Amino acid sequence: SFYYGTFPEGFLWGVGSSAYQTEGAWDKDGKGPSIWDAFTHRKGKVVRNETGDSACDGYYRVKDDIQLLKELRVNHYLLSISWPRIMPTGIKAEQLNEKGIQFYNDTINSLLENNITPIVSLYHWDLPQVLQEKYGGWQNISMINYFNDYANLCFEKFGDRVKHWITFSNPWAVAENGYETGEHAPGLKLGGCGAYKAAHHIIKSHAKVWHSYNNTWRKEQQGMVGISLTSGWGEPVDPHSQTDRDAAERYIQFHLGWFANPIYRGDYPEVMKNYVGRKSAQQGLGTSRLPTFSVQEKTYIKGTSDFLGIGHFTTRYVLQKNFPFLQVSGYDTDRDLAELVDPNWPAPGPKWLYSVPWGFRRLLNFIKTQYGNPLIYVTENGVSEPAQCTQLCDEGRIQYLKGYINEILKALNDGVNVKGYTAWSLLDKFEWNKGFSEKFGLYHIDFKNKNKPRYPKASVDYYKKIISANGFPNPREVENWHRKAMDTCSTTHQHLAADSLITHMETVTEIVLPTVFTLCILICIVLLIFYLRNHA
Q1: Phi and psi (nearest 5°) for 128?
Q2: Which of 5, 119, 344, 418 has the smallest set of CB atoms within 10 Å of its CB?
């Protein structure tokens, strides 16, 4: 049931995006190539072979996009820094790009001038390509020191103004999709070890950066360093079945616990160690495919988070499924489970993203119980619609935001320590291997128009009302918000239609008219030649 009430005073409302998905300018002003530049430039890796080369042109549109943030009345903006934009090869000793550093300085300053707090992620997937080519990226232990050098440069250049740092955004996807399934950059399929090895180095990198900040910068800068982990919720198909309950527990531990457990409890989840260890032994391997932490490393990693960032999008029903003995085992088969969905769950966008708000409250309560009720910022939560529909009246997104934000309010009443919420995302943008085929933005972008104008969807008006009221005051007012948001989007739709017509006419003018003019000249020349020949 829906719960009417307001969030605690000082609760932070924001919106987010990431560098590669929005900035564009992939090779401008001294930026080095990232693994995503290399990956998207290979045919067949992304839907319709699209790239983020220009993305939303965010590199050139900072002031415009900050106006959108002001329009939304958010407290904070979550952005990421592109490592190769400020350090083209990823190696501090080799080269720094002052223009890249200036770009982020200007962005941070503009946000603060407009009373918007920057929350900055150091890594949202765009590893410098040179580090991938030279060392194999996150498969190599040397990344720990290179990442630490990069993080310290960011603390040095921006830490006087940035007080909320995220080391890694959704490292699960970096490890699993980048080094096991190959769906994401760098596109490697390294069997049953790739994802675990990448994650192992990422966790150690995170801990080293936290200690660097703690020892060198904290006293002077007074900021916080955390990590952002994205996880679905796993609900047992049969809550009375112990095997289904155990399978649902494994779903969460292999997803969230993989990274959270070492940071909050000092080691990988026991169930992960047991299952991967057993499957490795069945394969005849002398050691587990899941690496181990030494006693010193466990102590060093435990407690290295001032807050926990949580990304959450959807829920699955989970049941036990035994995979037969396989010579090549991997992350998916290690878990011995199957995922199901309820066909009655709404799916406003792609078929992987079902709207199941109650799963969010359960996930937040799980974190409270498992990890000692840490300080939580929700760092990513949102829904997409398919690209073929220009849905400025995004009813599905309004219902999604309303439901999921309300579950956070219920979780707060359960005693969960949530301090802020970040809607994902500000703009329609490049969605990794899905290209531009999914739209997560509160603002629509007309990518066919070379100026890439931004248009508010109905959800902008609705989210703005939630922020202003700091929650959901009463049924009558909340219903009113919905009606007004729908009225507003109808007007915006008319503007978009008019602008699209103008863009179409401009295209006609730019392409068709010169072509017709050229043809006319050619015909005149041919006629003139005939005329002269006849008279000769």
Answers
A1: -55, 130
A2: 344
